[in-house]
Amino acid sequence: MSELIVISTLNGVLFGMLLFLLSSGLTVIFSMMGVLNFAHASFYMLGAFFGYQLTRWIGFWPALVLAPLLVGVVGMAVERYGLRNTHRHGHVAELLLTFGLAFAIEEIVSMIWGKSPVDYRVPTALDFPAFTVFSTNYPAYKIFMLAVSVSIFVALLIVLKRTRVGLIVQAALTYPTMVGHLGHNVGRVFMVVFGVGSALAGLAGVIAGPSLVTQSDMASLLGPILFVVIVFGGLGSLPGAFIASLLIGLIQTFAVALNGSLASAFGPLDPGLGPSVLTDIWNVTIAQIAPILPYVLLVLILIVRPMGLLGTRET
Amino acid sequence: MTAAIEIKDVQKRFGNVSIIRDLNLNVARGERHAIIGPNGAGKSTTFNLISGHIKPSGGEIRLNGDVISGLRPFEINRRGLSRSFQVTNVFARMTVLENVRCAVLWATGHRYAFWKNVDRLPVVKQRTERILEDIHLSHRRDVPAGLLTYAEQRELEIGITIAGGANVIMLDEPTAGMSHAETERAVTLIRRLTEGRTLVIVEHDMSVVFGIADRISVLVYGQIIASGTPEEIRGNRKVREAYLGEEGH
Amino acid sequence: MTDATAPLELKEQPGGRVRFYGIWLIAAVALIVLPLVFSSGGSLTSFSLIGIAIIFALSYNILLGQTGLLSFGHAVHYGLGGFLAVHVMNAVANYNWPLPLPFIPLFGGIGGLAFAIVFGWVMTKRAGTVFAMITLGIGELVASSSLILRSVFGGESGITTDRTALPHMFGWSFGPQRQVYYLIAFWVMVSAIAMYALTRTPLGRLCNAVRDNPERVEFIGYDPHVVRYFAYGFAGFFAGVAGGLTAINFEIANSAYLGATQSGFVLFAAFIGGTAYFFGPILGAILVTYLQLGLTDLTTVWQLYFGIIFIGIVMFAPGGIAGLLMMHRPLVRAGSLATVIPSYLVAALPTLAFALGVILSIETVAHYTDSEGEGSVVHLVGIPFDAVKPTTWLAAAVLVVVGFVIARLTWRRVTEAWDRAATIARDRGYLA
């Protein structure tokens, strides 16, 4: 039991940090531009596939740097040539544009790399067990992932607190309506922020790819969870996104690890009852309901606190 | 007789900043009351507090004797208070007719009805037509509100505000940005349309204020520093120093 | 029928009432005559699917076009409607209830409505982006839950039914596709009229007001939350009707009905058709269903074309097809349409070249990467292109780049011509 707790906590924190790598960019972009980038998870997927392809061509370490940069460029292009032109049609149009993009990117990825998972492997230099907890070997690559996400987290904090751009971002987080008064280079600021946000998503993809499955549906699987994270945390709140990321990361990881069901806890139902909703619920394992837990949380927070955990904004 | 609006010790803080400090104000029924004051004095905040747009941090607001502070805007509206906005705030994609008609629907008791044809409601039709005529926009009835001229939008804004038949009308700088001729027309309009109702108006143009108001309150830094008839306000030294002097009147 | 939300109307229409009822009559006649003209089994199937898509897209537009609510989970109502319909059909057959098939879509509607009543109040608390995210989350929640509750949703395979096992009506068994088509056509007519009528009620108009300016609505006595809740309920009901019809049409309901793909489909249909006009989603439903049926045979990457068309519409014609058509109405009335037509013809050629270039690029990449597919030869407008030859790649690149550059220039001309035509229309008293 304690083995499960240690391993699941590690994995949960790891998944949570990965989610935060994505949700932080999404939150900052939303706060500054008012756009909820539906294609954010697609950038994560692009990161994984670019990482895979570049690893095959030039090796993992150069790919680790290059792939996020490429994704960042794609993101900047999307902002410059897509969103900026759509802006005058309002936020719904912008959201729809990114929705269309997410759809198109998934199709393009499956057109080029196919619909089945690609063979994106952990680099040999990191392919060894880092330590052993009880009887489980904890892979070094996961420690590496954790290290990367934590260092990005720290770097973000420093940028946010210590630099001019950070101040602008912070101002935007606190006073969303003030962003318009940033001056004439507001377009460039948007483009850079969008690019950095996309690049971070790409980085998450590059490092998550070998550990999770790199497949053309990975964006549509992760995307909805990501949106749950930022709605749960409160749209536009960075600390909220952080807490929600960790919470959902932990909850999902623990749920997947637990095999219990009502049947295993209280014994099977009388077989004479026959199949019904009750037997479905009685026999389902916690691991099986893991995928729906984030959405259950979403419904709960909406009932209890529609603004989200740390949200302050109405829209 | 109870006052139409009674504001008692109302405060509003945003974080540590007090915008409104111990505001006290009475508006009698049938009175035309103007609130004046320098920019940033809290006039719009006062309007937002009374109409339920924002909630007071403390104190109490009564409408015709009933406490309304803390109620939602539509609840306050249903009790007979209607307000306009400083920045034009109409339904841009809907026609002028639809704008006015929507504002008539609740007051005529149709609420959320989904079983009635909106074109076949005689009372609604009659009232909408009358308001369109009153605000001189009958000939523009089928134009989307977003395509009206600025002055026309301001008139529509007033039309929407009075359409529900509320007995307390609050107008937030109704003539802001209008030319001299347009302002004169608007003043006549306001005077006629608010006949027999209570009017609270925020206005910068002193000729409008002195032309319409029975009573004037001067708001400076979130507090009423003087309240009285136009003559009393004109003669008040404190007011002249704090406000009127700056405006050059 | 366009005056539901038609923003650009200045002059009174003589005989508007006759025209109004005329359009509905023509639509009804067209629905009756269609299968007589195109009587093959394939076209009957297509018409049935298009009919269902029309109801579905119109129901979606109650949210997006009428109330300004963007939903990513509308298929939840469609799917639940389908499942309830299937269960009711099976129950009717099992217990010999005297309920003929044509009433079944009503239960579909009830299924969609029930979900809206229970969850809608919480969901419609917020509008805008948050509402969009909530619908996405709820959509995933329902889709995932449907796989767990196997006894109700039948797991991966779904739940089947037999539509002929219900009591017959007018001597129809509803076995043949033609009879099913007429059943669907009947419901298309009824639903379209009902949804149109809804736009003409106090609630319908308040929906528009909430779409335009929810803040102001609060100051004319209405609670925008309640308005959104009602709109959500009606949208859910009619989506459920569409789902019920689908269940009848395929004699099955499965969890794919509830999923994100289906929700995306209806969003595409409504938006491509145009959300600002009542008839927009009808056009969109016809086009998108037709493309879906037609493109699947032609190309393996048809969904990508959907995405591209959608992105194009969002960026360049956010009013959709209906918006593009209605833009020209004042010009037609004022007689200045001739001013823009030549510029359109000039722009058409490079635009077409650009489009062909994009298609060739996509098909080339698709054939190049798909090694075990149908070989590397792309057939485009009758010309074979070999995806492994560099000349093909070059041809695609040239078409894209040159087409784009010239198209941009010609479209600038279109804009100028358009401005002239619009000025004329304005001068003649037609708003443009």
Describe the structure.
The complex is a heterotrimer of chains A (315), B (249) and C (432). Chain A has 315 residues and is mainly alpha-helical. Chain A has 13 helices and two strands; from the N terminus they run H-H-H-H-E-E-H-H-H-H-H-H-H-H-H. Helices cover 70% and strands 3% of the residues of chain A. A two-stranded antiparallel sheet of chain A has the order 1-2. The termini of chain A are far apart. The model of chain A has no long low-confidence stretch (mean pLDDT 87). Chain B contains nine helices and ten strands. In chain B, the strands form two sheets. A six-stranded mixed sheet of chain B has the order 6-7-8-3-9-10, sandwiched between helices. Chain B has a four-stranded antiparallel sheet with strand order 2-1-4-5, with helices on one face. The mean pLDDT of chain B is 91. Chain C has 432 residues and is mainly alpha-helical. Chain C has a two-stranded antiparallel ribbon. A two-stranded antiparallel sheet of chain C has the order 3-4. In chain C, strand 3 and strand 4 form a beta hairpin. The chains are: A mainly alpha (315), B alpha/beta (249), C mainly alpha (432). Chains in contact: A-C, B-C.
Structural class of chain A: mainly alpha
Number of helices of chain A: 13
Low-confidence stretches of chain A: none
Order of helices and strands of chain C: HHHHHHEHHHHEHHHHHHEEH
Name the helix and strand elements of chain A from N-terminus to C-terminus, one letter apiece. HHHHEEHHHHHHHHH
Query: Helix content range of the residues of chain C, please?
Result: over 70%
Average predicted confidence as pLDDT of chain C? 90
For the termini of chain C, the CA-CA separation is 20 Å
Oligomer: heterotrimer
Strand content of chain C: under 5%
Structural class of chain C: mainly alpha
Measured on Cα atoms, how large is the radius of gyration of chain C? 24 Å
